[in-house]
Amino acid sequence: MEPDLVVPTMEAIRRWSGVAVPNAAARHGLADHAALIAELEALRGSMVFEEEPSHFEAALRACKEPGQ
Amino acid sequence: MNAPVAASDLADLSMTEAADAFARGELRAEALVRACLARIEAHDGKVNAVIRLDREAALAAAAAQDKARAAGEACGPLAGAPMMHKDMYYRAGKVSSCGSKIRRDFVPQVTATVLERLDAAGAIDMGTLNMAEFAQNPTGHNAHFGHCHNPWNLDYCTGGSSSGSGAGVAARFFTAALGSDTGGSIRLPATLCGVTGLKATQTRVSRHGVMPLSFSCDNVGPLVRTARDAARFLRVTAGQDPKDPTSAAEPVPDYEAALTGSVRGMRIAVCETYFLDGADAPVVAAFEQALAALREAGAVVTRIKAPSLAAIAAYTALVSRVEGAAIHANWMREHPGDYAIHLSARLFGGYAIPGHLYVEALSRRGALLKQFVAEALTGHDLVATPTLRIRVPTLAETDIDADPANWHRFMAVSANTRPFNYLGLPTLSVPCGFDDRGLPVGLQLAGRPFAEATVLRAGDAFQRATDWHRRAPAL
């Protein structure tokens, strides 16, 4: 049975992006989002206010092998 | 001239074996190209790795190299080595289909920096290779150019998205191939086809002139026979490029000089969390056997836990999907039917992911990298995992176009490779055995940022202690 989130998500995508559901497999993929939402729900509250994407390249340099 | 390499062995030569034999005057480039062309002509009807074969241009380039070497001219580090590349590396004036119907006739105006560097090093370019459409699947299915078939068993997946690169190196069609890796697209076909694949540190290799998928996670790298091949290939291709502002300014070391053959004292961590969850028994058995070989060679193997992997696994599922959805939005609106079913389905899901979660995933990337390094790579030189935690699947059981119910099996293929794209860490896959159906199993080794030399040293030492990388499929 298709989860409740599928139809409203399809409608939101159509409104925000102008993309229509292309096939049955796409509906299947959206149904799979329930598991991803649950994983992300578990991470709520973990982001720090000052974090931003540019920290990543600095972290790459900071995490090099000692002495490299 | 020294003793020539026997004609029957030519296509079995690895990239560095071929280039070194050529440099010593033991091998004619034209003879090797002819041996590779003969393999392609005999077997590609079954494997379907090749999209465009530039036969005459390759023979002419090889003959020119033979003539130059006979005249005493210096040759590059890859001279004499025939290669073909995933059909998403732009060469000005040549079609680059990206494995798609939409770009089937696309002719770029620029040449990829990585191709220019390979050309300058003497590599012989024989043409372009099959791939997942727009590099967007981990299995090797392609609805437009036909599926690529695993040379070990034609019913099975090659892995993707660099399907032709993995299958062609395994089938001895050429000595090396460029793949690209956004979620495992080099390491998966390397594993499934029983060859060696390297994804370097994010930003290590220029992406100028390369089809984009996800600007945060895309990587350029080789599929080859050995870690030594990967070391030389990386030395040639890595380094800052003014045409790619994201490329790193870090110096490029002599990676081959780091291949001491020893892992004595090297500390290798095995994560008890995530990477072995639901793993198939034959894969675990081959992985444990590989760890035993490393331990026998002097490495210290330790079991650890890495709690950060829960967040890493969740975020890594977001980033490339959102970025891929964004760059395909116009085509998804205007002619979605030109995509394969599985690709339009996958892209469609990307539009459902809220923007704040995408920003959260990118914003936490640096902090999670530091956390993972603290958990897994502080006190350890490497992390080891199976590259693919399940047995190699068949093309039929991962075909979403035929049955959407195959979605989960399809998505599970890249579970062990994707986290290292999010983390940006250098990661090598080497063959480490076979499963109970005779399909290859891969060992994945990841190191700290820019520690490619350490990763390659371990892979090379493993390959000196084992012969899995020497096995060839009977076609």
Layout: helices, strands, pairs:
The complex is a heterodimer of chains A (68) and B (475).
Chain A: H1 6-17, H2 24-31, H3 33-41, H4 55-62
Chain B: H1 15-23, H2 29-47, E1 50-53, H3 55-70, E2 82-86, H4 113-120, E3 124-129, H5 163-170, E4 177-180, H6 187-193, E5 196-199, E6 220-224, H7 227-237, E7 267-271, H8 281-296, E8 300-304, H9 309-327, H10 329-334, H11 341-350, H12 355-363, H13 365-376, E9 382-386, H14 407-412, H15 418-423, E10 427-434, E11 440-446, H16 452-465
Parallel strand pairs in B: 2-3, 7-8, 7-9
Antiparallel strand pairs in B: 1-3, 4-6, 5-6, 5-10, 9-11, 10-11
Helix pairs in contact in B: 2-3, 5-6, 7-16, 9-11, 9-12
Question: What does the overall shape of chain B look like?
Answer: globular
Largest interface chains and counts: A-B, 43 and 54 residues
Q: What number is the mean pLDDT of chain A?
A: 93
Q: In DSSP terms, counting alpha (H) and pi (I) runs of 4 or more, how many helices of chain A?
A: 4
* Helical/strand content category of chain B: alpha/beta
Largest sheet, strands/sense/barrel of chain B? 8 strands, mixed
Order of helices and strands of chain A: HHHH
- Structural class, from helix and strand content of chain A? mainly alpha
Strand content of chain A: under 5%
Count all strands of chain B and give the number: 11
* Low-pLDDT segments of chain B: none
Strand order of the largest sheet of chain B: 4-6-5-10-11-9-7-8
Q: Report the order of strands and helices of chain B.
A: HHEHEHEHEHEEHEHEHHHHHEHHEEH
Q: Determine the N-to-C terminus distance of chain B.
A: 33 Å
Number of helices of chain B: 16
Oligomer kind: heterodimer
Mean pLDDT of chain B, to the nearest integer, reads: 96
Determine the fraction of residues in helical runs of chain B and give it as a percent range. 25-40%
The major sheet of chain A is characterized as: none
- List how many beta strands of chain A DSSP finds: 0
